[in-house]
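Why predict the complex rather than its parts? Because the way molecules touch one another can change local conformation, and only a joint prediction can capture that. The input here totals 660 residues.
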Amino acid sequence: MSSPSKILRKVRLASFLERLIQERQVFAPVREGEVILIREIESPSQVVLEYPNAKESPKSVLFPQRETLFWYRAEKGKAEVDIPRDKEQGRVLFGIRPCDARGLLLLDKVFGGDCRDPYYVGKRANTVVVSLGCDDPNPSCFCLSMGGGPCSKEGSDLFLLDVGDRYVAEGVNEKSAALLADETFEKLDEETAALAEKVKRASGASMHPVVLKEKLVEQLERLFNDPVWKDLTESCLGCGICTYLCPTCHCFDLCDEAAGTTGERIRVWDSCQFPLFTQQASGFNPRPTVKERFRQRIMHKFSYLPETQTMPGCVGCGRCVTECPVNLDIREVVTSLSKGNAR
Amino acid sequence: MRQLTTDIRSIARKLLQEKKVQVVIGFERGSMPLRSRPCFVRKEEDVERLVWDGFCENTLAAYLPKRKEKVAIVAKGCDSRAVVELIKEKQAQREQVILIGVPCRGMIDRTRVEANVAPKRILQAEEREDVLILKGSDFEQALSRSDLLHDSCKTCTHPNPVLHDVLAGQPLVEKDGDSFSDIEAFDAMTSEERWAYVSKEVDKCIRCYACRNACPLCYCPECFVDASLPRWIGKSTDASDTTIFHLMRAYHLAGRCVSCGACERACPVGVDIRKLNRKLQKDVKALFGYEAGLSLDETSPLATFRPDDPEHFIVNP
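Output of the joint prediction:
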């Protein structure tokens, strides 16, 4: 069920956000030092909407890097456990980019599928996603090649598109109804609707499909043991930038932080690029070098996830492309592998 | 620039032809404007991939530890100093490495370049002698190269390789000794202010370990943060853990850090990592008169013991 499109004038955005903040927790792009990050806002003036994309993906709003699963206390043979309660207040993830909204779809499948994760699912159900279409994609963006697009609405509840002095707001599903009911939104006129279509066409056309992936899954299976992985990964430093900034990477570790007989069990992000990720108690590591770890990242994203979750673990946001310290470009890697380039 | 590229290629070709090395580690053009990246050349026909420009910012010495084969490495001043330290610390053997020295005019900080033209997108960049010409879909702009350098390059006093086997191009004029002017303000702070500054910086850290992994001198087979039996520090981004990580790492690099700036360049979230390293560098210089990575014969001050070493801070704090 889709709501009709409306108009949100930029001059009225602040008052709209002001009302939203009164009712809900609002997370939006803000400037911190030299970078744009998605953070909870206290005032509309913090929000920066003319931005290529945030340095970190918005996944941390729903899947924090450190999350308490429960607190425990053990005394004289008795154990007590407390589970954190989520705030009743709803959340709005405002102004994120379409690639990141699409990334949430993968997290939904992983955390909300057969193995339901109450921590993620609880927060997610309570969150309205308002995405902002890209009218000027970055050279590092490749969402189109990953099945999305600069104006894709997948994963969004409400989709905004900048058409000059106003945004066109398209309700994607019923979750957006409460927001669209706000007095700020005006009826969409034909002229603005036509302008929105023009912006969409232009932004799509400005992107070049850069990744060939038609035969990727079968090539990946064939190339698993090929020495080509060593060549592809020779410059890899083995850091966790690509996985930690990725909107779809979701691997985690569980550990206890204890003091005496009390403590908490926490969930923290983990990365397949780290040696400890697969280190076994015996000391043996089945993925001993960056070659195996990098291969795992590519296999997981482009072979295992398409099979188990029906979508790749990549939405083409380009963060790993721009932030990799050695410019190890996933677009080139995937293109080369899908062509079947063995050593 | 173009001449240096030509020189590096011909040196690399000769080394591979004469089988003096199995691999040449240098730079190739990256996949985006303002990027060059490490590359590993093993065949003569691949030497044409090698380039030299203002974006060869990676510290290639980081690829040296644990290598078995004979390697040639394209080395800026900072790379050469890192190689010196690695040899001294027995992580590489002198006869295993051929240093292709390249006098370095400083590397360009792309975030600085991008900030200059934001929010416009750079689609093409051309480097001339002292200017960088940027082109986008609707603009062309020239920026002065010297305004765009990385912080570590601004304070660098060793633009020429301190150790090389063959030199590409001509040596540059050496700079005066390090004045540490970049940390004057930090030095002048009270310890409370310094703590507040460091806390604010490490608060940004996401524990991706890019700083550690990009560092040529961070080669421990097992980093203390990865130890699990026992576990020294927690795995989260809790302030106590990120602070311990950065402080321990800085201290472990005291008297060893060659100030290449690889840590800061690799950091995706802009933690001012070098502040701690620079402070320790200054202290080591003041206390021991030592600058890391300048000579193979000098003993590293924190890797040696003298009976007259000061110890009043231990026995009578």
